[in-house]
Structures are given as structure tokens and as C-alpha cells.
Design a protein that fits this description.
The protein has 758 residues and is mostly helical. The chain has 30 helices and three strands. The protein folds into three domains: 489 residues, no CATH class; 121 residues, Serine Threonine Protein Phosphatase 5, Tetratricopeptide repeat; 59 residues. Helix content is 67%, strand content 2%.
Length: 758
């Protein structure tokens, strides 16, 4: 049977197990076990002076080295991966500089993460099933398998199985990502089995972390070498680095914040100690200037845990330590002090912290409203949930009316900003308990090795990963989980649990070649699929910004063929067809004005209309709860009613009603319904629809403008004047509205009866 965990905990590899003859596969002979035991004993050495020296790779087979390389590539490349390299000056037609993918951040990180995980698992599978070898097992293994099984079940019961399996575009935390996390956990447990290897992984992580943090600091200083466009969705000079969003960057920085300290305090070589402290210093600067409250709280907890670990380990501090600690303190204080004079409350640390307790305004208010929507969704399906990463598809149905007023009709929450609620809404309460049970158990198992009194500094690096994990978990209570960061939570937990793993030696079973071949074939298909997955996004990008020699629709169709489950690709194809409709209708008008026959242009416009209609219907069939597609299709039918056949107005009303079922407080689709009703001659019905829409988003000017026009047609001039007056308060310089107000007021004077509301 499997051996018990080594009493030496974190120090070195575990001795081989005495395998039971009941275990699958053939166990080693006594002589082979003896040889393995001696090899393991030799591996139990003191931590090497260098983290990536011979001690880290001692005793590795060829396949072990492949796994080792895959893990290092993952740790280094995932944090820095993105697709915008326009600072290199790659020009396309029209002088534009395009990235390599439409999603410049998450999809690239997912691609790299999966490639490394699949490559590492393929190498392990070849070694284990064809040649035999060790298998290291932790107490969490069956819990993780059970969790993955549950996520798979909830994917098939999901409102959108495709989304639950692949994840929502630009989030990607579906079933496949959870499987990838588990693969990373498994590979780390198998190969990172001694202090020198833990240090080696941690050091590689520092190289990528200092790049990420340094880039965030450059953005804060206004020195970003990359062009991101003029309209960023957050404040200028706020760091977002290679993660594309300050919230995501802040969450990631919790890991290097703690791990850099653990490496510095346990490093005997001065030059490396300086490097680790320098990484910590830059990380602190980026952590503060991302202005993410949840990350501040998570990072503070991680540093507090590291302080406890350091007190227990009692490392020898020298001038380097005191100097960098002082620099970090002074530099951090200076950044905070500088921010206090900033009039923008987001970029003012004092106001940002104070806003945590202001529950009735700002982002805290809308955050509570999102949480309420999540709670409503959980109540609706508490066991199976709606499917992993489907919250964007669920939110419109369950969001409160107050959210539309406070955040605006265009705002759609695709993430709960609270991981427990996100999980419960997606994979049910059982899925949440399984995952957080795994988190808690891993920390419990790893605590004795991370916080062992009197064991010296060799445990500090484990403590760094332990602290980073618990800090990130705290951050997730108010933050977002994305694959590029959460994979390091699973990696950290694997490292803190690895010293407790039980090790078994196996010879290759008779059926190993068959299983190994099938598994490697499946992993190879996954690797190819990973390439196809990211290639599709490149075609989609080019379809949105085609060169003079490229056809936008053909490129978008290719993207759909490569990834038929991405609803965004299909929606944008529908929009491309709408662009063709507009172009052909313009041509038809030009032909008619020139005395030419417009029939050909009209036929082309009708053909494009049919293609757009079919595309939107297909998209709805894939994601039936995505509100935007109902809005797009209703607007298309209103165009068709105006251009081709008035019967399309009836279809617009029908599809708008379905959209209202999906999102009860969606003013956009209600506006389209009112337009269709008015076009069908039902002005009273249109007014009723609009009046039920007015207060959903007081700043949605299109609703108020159309209402004013309806009131004017109905002769209700005083009410129409009130709407134009309201619109001018929102946009005082709008001359079209001021002219309309004058015209209505003139009508009021000419027809006093129009001043009274019926």
C-alpha cells in the first residue's frame, strides 16, 4: 500500500511507497525499491544555493525534464502573454496597427496555459503508461476528480452547454479551464517534490512577475509604449499591464507580493536576494497604483501571513533586507501620499479605501445589486446552477431594476465580483462546496510545512505560496477570477500540498500502451484544438478590421467555422450583413435618383437581410438567453419593415417580446418594440410600451426622444415639451432638441388644447 507522508515534510523527495499487490499495475521488486530508496535518500539534501542548479533537476528522466520545462514555460509565459505588439510597428492597411487576436489578453493566456499543461501531461502519460514510474498522490485527488465530474454534469444541465464547457468569451472559465487547473495541480505534485524545485519554479515566476509589475508601473507613469486606443474603460494612468484590466492585474500581483518576500528572506546569495527584493519593490508600486481595493485587502493579508511565517522561521536579516524593506515602505507611502491630492476618487487611495464602507453609492452600490442578481439566480437553481461561466447569460433575467438606473442600460455584468456567488450561480451550491472544500483542505494540509517553528528558512518559500493562495482567495470575495491568475492559485495549492504526497512506484501495466496511446492521442487533439481556438480569434479580428484586399464577411465566416460555439463571432457576422444592407440601400437610392433601375441593389439588400436574419436566429439557438441578439434581430426586423415589407414590424414585436422575457428591464428591446408598434399604426400601444421604459435608465436619451416624438404626433404638446426640456438638461448643447422644443412650444400656442394631458 502507499506510504505515509514523509516525516521530513518539505525537505526533499519522499521515500518510495511499498505498493500493495492489489494496486493496478505491477509494483517494483524489492531490489528495485531499495535502489529507489537510496536515490530518494540522496535527493534529501539541503536547499541548493541556486534555485535552478543541478539539485533542482537531479534524478529527472527525459520525460520529467519535459514536464519540468512545460511548468517553467507556463509560469513564465502565462503572466506576460498578450497579443498587442504594436510597439514593434507592425502596420496593416490604412496605417492601423493591429494585435494578433481580437481578445488581446485572456484568450492568449488560455492558449499558453493549455499548451503547456497538455504538453506536460502527454510527457507524463508516455512515461507512466509505457515505461512505468512514480505516481505521487495527495489527499485532495479524489475531491478534485469529484469536483470536475460535478462541473461536467452541470455543463450538460446548463442553459448553454457550449458556454459552460468552453467558458464565456473573454473569461473562458468553463469546464475545460477547470480541467486545465487540475492538470497543472497534478503535474506540480508529480515533479515539484523538493525545496530546490519549489525555489526554481518560484524564481521563474519572479522573472515574469517583475515584467508584469514593471509594465504596470510604466502605465502609471504615462510611459506605456503600446497604443491601446483613446477610450480605455478605466482611468488613465491606472496600471493594467498584460492583464487588460486593473482589477485583474491587482489580483495577480498578490502572488509575487508574497512569494518575492519568501524568496528574499530564504536566499543565501546576495545578488539573488537583491533581485527578489527588487521584484517585491516593483510589485508593491504596481499593486498600489492598480487601485484595486480587493487586491489591497488580499495583498495585505498575504503580507501579514508572511510576517508570521518569518517570525517562526527567524531568518537572518542583513543590510539588503533592511534597505529594501525601508525603500518599499517609503516608496509605498510616497505613492499613497501623492494619490491623496488626486481629485479623482478612484485614483485617491484615501477615498478609495473609504468607499469600501459607502454601500449606497458608486461601485459598491452596483456591486451589491450584482450580488443580489446572483443570489436570485442561486435561489432559482440551487443544486446544478446555470452552468460554469454563464453569469452574463443569467444576469439579465435576475438583475434588479435599480441596477439599470444606477449602472446604465448598456452595462451587463458578466462576472459577479464575488467568486463564491459566481460559483454557486454557475455550478450550484454543491460545486461551490467541493471547490472551496478543496481550497480549505489544501491550506490545512500545507500549514504545518509552511509554518513550522524552528525549521529554519527552507520552509519560507512554501509559506510564500501559502500566503499568496489565501490572499488571492480573500481577493476573490470582491474580485474576478480569470484563468491567467486563478491557475496560480491551483499551482500554489499544489506546492503547499506536495510535501504531504504519498509516492508509489509502478511498472508499466500490460494494458498501459493502449491507455497511453489513447490518452496521448486525446491530448494531441486538444493541442490542435487549442491552436484552432486561437486561430479563429485572429480571423475574427481581421474580419473586424480588414485590409483593402480582404473580405470582412469571409474572414468572420472562417472564424465561425473554426470556432462555431462563439456567439460573439456570429453576432458580429450579423452586424456585417447589416452593413451590407445599408450599403445596398444607399446604392438603390442613388440609382433611383439618377433615373436608373434600383432593382438589382434592392435584391442584394434583401439577400443580405435574409443572411443577417438567419445569422441572428442561429446565434439565439446557441445562447437563447443572450439579450443582445434579441435586440439586434428586433432592430433588423424594423429595418426590414421600413425597407421591404411592413409585415416585418409584426416580427419585430414578436422577437422583442421574447427579448423582454430574457431581460425584463431591458430598455433597448422595449424601444424597438415601441418603434414597431408605432410603425404598425398602434401609437397608443407604442406610448404604453415607452412609458413602461422611461424610468429604467433616466439617461437613455433615445427612449425620451422617441417618446417626445410620439407625444407630438398625438397632439400632447405640453408633455412633448417636458420631454425635450428633460433631454436638454442631459445635453444642453443639442441644437436639434432645442429646435424641436421651439416647434412644440409653437404648436402649444397655436393649439391650447394640446397643453392638457389626456
Amino acid at each position: 500500500m502507499a506510504s505515509s507522508p514523509s516525516s521530513k515534510g518539505a525537505s526533499g523527495a519522499q521515500p518510495p511507497a511499498k505498493a500493495s499487490p492489489k494496486k493496478a499495475g505491477k509494483t517494483q521488486s524489492r531490489a528495485a525499491q531499495s535502489v529507489a530508496a537510496k536515490a530518494a535518500a540522496r535527493a534529501q539534501v539541503k536547499p541548493a544555493r541556486t534555485a535552478s542548479g543541478p539539485a533542482a533537476t537531479a534524478g529527472m528522466s527525459g520525460t520529467d525534464r519535459i514536464i519540468w520545462i512545460c511548468l517553467h514555460l507556463l509560469v513564465f509565459l502565462v503572466p506576460v502573454a498578450m497579443s498587442n505588439f504594436n510597439w514593434l510597428g507592425r502596420l496593416v492597411a490604412g496605417g492601423q496597427m493591429l494585435p494578433l487576436t481580437y481578445d488581446q489578453f485572456d484568450i492568449v493566456k488560455v492558449f499558453v496555459m493549455r499548451a503547456c499543461a497538455l504538453g506536460g501531461l502527454a510527457a507524463w502519460s508516455f512515461q507512466f503508461f509505457f515505461k512505468g514510474g512514480k505516481l505521487r498522490r495527495t489527499k485532495l485527488d479524489w475531491l478534485i476528480v469529484g469536483f470536475l465530474g460535478w462541473v461536467l454534469v452541470t455543463s450538460f444541465t446548463s442553459i448553454s452547454p457550449a458556454t459552460a464547457i468552453f467558458g464565456k468569451y473573454r473569461r473562458f472559465e468553463g469546464f475545460f479551464s477547470f480541467v486545465t487547473y487540475a492538470i497543472v495541480y497534478f503535474l506540480v505534485v508529480q515533479i515539484v517534490d523538493r525545496p530546490s524545485r519549489i525555489r526554481s519554479i518560484a524564481r521563474t515566476f519572479m522573472f515574469s512577475s517583475i515584467i508584469v509589475a514593471g509594465y504596470g508601473v510604466l502605465q502609471y507613469l504615462g510611459l506605456d509604449p503600446i497604443s491601446w486606443g483613446a477610450n480605455l474603460p478605466f482611468e488613465a494612468n491606472r496600471g493594467f499591464s498584460t492583464f487588460g484590466n486593473p482589477d485583474l492585474l491587482g489580483g495577480f500581483l498578490i502572488f509575487p507580493l508574497a512569494i518575492s518576500v519568501s524568496l528574499a528572506l530564504s536566499e543565501p546569495m546576495k545578488r539573488w536576494r537583491i533581485f527578489y527584493w527588487a521584484t517585491f519593490l516593483v510589485t508593491v508600486a504596481a499593486w498600489i497604483t492598480a487601485y484595486v481595493r480587493g487586491a489591497w485587502l488580499g495583498g495585505a493579508l498575504a503580507l501579514l501571513v508572511m510576517l508570521v511565517a518569518a517570525i517562526l522561521a527567524r531568518p537572518r536579516l542583513n543590510a539588503v533586507d533592511w534597505s529594501f524593506a525601508g525603500l518599499a515602505g517609503v516608496g509605498g507611502a510616497a505613492l499613497v501620499a501623492r494619490s491623496l491630492s488626486n481629485a479623482n476618487p478612484i485614483l485617491n487611495v484615501g477615498q478609495r479605501l473609504a468607499s469600501i464602507f459607502k454601500f449606497s453609492e458608486g461601485s459598491a452600490l452596483t456591486r451589491f445589486e450584482i450580488w443580489q442578481a446572483a443570489i436570485n439566480a442561486i435561489k432559482a437553481r440551487p443544486i446544478f446552477g446555470f452552468g460554469a461561466d454563464t453569469f452574463r447569460l443569467v444576469f439579465p433575467k435576475y438583475k434588479p431594476l435599480a441596477y439599470v438606473k444606477d449602472a446604465g442600460y448598456l452595462s451587463v455584468a458578466d462576472n459577479v465580483h464575488d467568486y463564491p456567488l459566481q460559483l454557486m450561480a454557475g455550478i450550484g451550491i454543491i460545486g461551490f462546496l467541493l471547490l472551496y472544500g478543496m481550497f480549505g483542505w489544501a491550506l490545512w494540509l500545507g500549514a504545518p510545512n509552511a509554518f513550522a517553528r524552528g525549521k529554519g528558512t527552507e520552509r519560507l518559500v512554501i509559506a510564500g505560496f501559502w500566503a499568496a493562495a489565501i490572499g488571492y482567495i480573500l481577493h476573490l470575495f470582491t474580485g474576478l477570477s480569470v484563468t491567467g491568475s486563478t491557475v496560480f492559485l491551483w499551482l500554489s495549492l499544489a506546492i503547499v500540498v506536495s510535501p504531504t504526497a504519498r509516492e508509489e512506484e509502478h511498472q508499466a501495466p500490460a494494458w498501459g500502451a493502449i491507455v497511453g496511446t489513447l490518452l496521448i492521442a486525446a491530448l494531441s487533439l486538444g493541442f490542435v484544438g487549442n491552436i484552432v481556438f486561437i486561430s479563429a480569434d485572429n480571423f475574427f479580428l481581421r474580419g473586424q478590421f480588414p485590409s483593402a484586399s480582404e473580405d470582412a464577411i469571409s474572414l468572420t465566416k472562417t472564424a465561425i467555422a473554426l470556432n462555431p460555439y462563439n456567439d460573439i463571432y456570429r453576432s458580429m457576422l450579423g452586424k456585417a450583413y447589416e452593413g451590407q444592407i445599408a450599403g445596398w440601400m444607399t446604392q438603390a437610392n442613388t440609382d433611383q435618383q439618377a433615373g436608373k433601375d434600383p432593382t438589382t441593389a434592392l435584391d442584394q439588400a434583401k439577400g443580405a437581410f435574409t443572411l443577417a436574419e438567419d445569422t441572428y436566429k442561429q446565434t439565439i439557438s446557441i445562447v437563447p438567453t443572450e439579450y443582445d441578439n434579441y435586440l439586434f434581430l428586433a432592430a433588423l426586423y424594423n429595418q426590414g419593415g421600413s425597407y421591404f415589407d411592413p409585415t416585418y414590424f409584426g416580427k419585430a414585436i414578436e422577437i422583442a417580446d421574447k427579448g423582454i422575457e430574457v431581460e425584463p428591464f431591458g430598455p433597448g428591446v422595449r424601444l424597438q418594440k415601441a418603434v414597431a408598434q408605432a410603425s404598425n399604426g398602434d401609437s397608443a400601444g407604442a406610448i404604453t410600451t415607452i412609458e413602461a421604459t422611461l424610468n429604467m435608465d433616466p439617461n437613455y436619451t433615445d427612449v425620451h426622444l422617441f417618446y417626445a416624438q410620439l407625444l407630438t404626433r398625438a397632439g400632447r404638446f405640453a408633455d412633448a415639451a417636458a420631454q425635450y426640456t428633460y433631454l436638454l438638461k442631459l445635453e444642453p448643447g443639442n441644437t436639434a432638441w432645442s429646435d424641436a422644443l421651439k416647434a412644440v412650444e409653437a404648436s402649444m400656442s397655436a393649439s391650447p388644447s394640446g397643453t392638457t394631458t389626456p
